[in-house]
Specification:
By secondary structure, this protein is of the alpha+beta class. The longest helix is centred in the last third of the chain and has 15 residues, at 32-46. It has a two-stranded antiparallel sheet. It has helices spanning 21-28, 32-46, and strands spanning 7-10, 16-19. Helix content is 45%, strand content 16%. It has one domain (7-46). β1 (7-10) and β2 form a beta hairpin. The chain starts with 6 loop residues before the first strand and ends in a 5-residue tail after the last helix.
């Protein structure tokens, strides 16, 4: 069995946002709440705020 690892997304400020396999699974299933959570997390990271 393959080990699931966290994905990393680099935002324009140079910060790295980590996304868990569970978050990606919810996004792929078209979970609107998961998509909104990720969007908010990326926006906060891009502004230099804690996420």
């Amino acid at each position: 069995m393959r080990e699931e690892t966290m994905s990393e997304i680099l935002v324009p400020t140079g910060r790295i946002v980590k996304v868990t396999p569970e978050e990606w699974k919810r996004i792929k299933e078209n979970d609107a709440f998961a998509e909104q959570d990720l969007k908010e997390k990326l926006e906060r990271a891009a502004k230099g705020l804690p996420y």
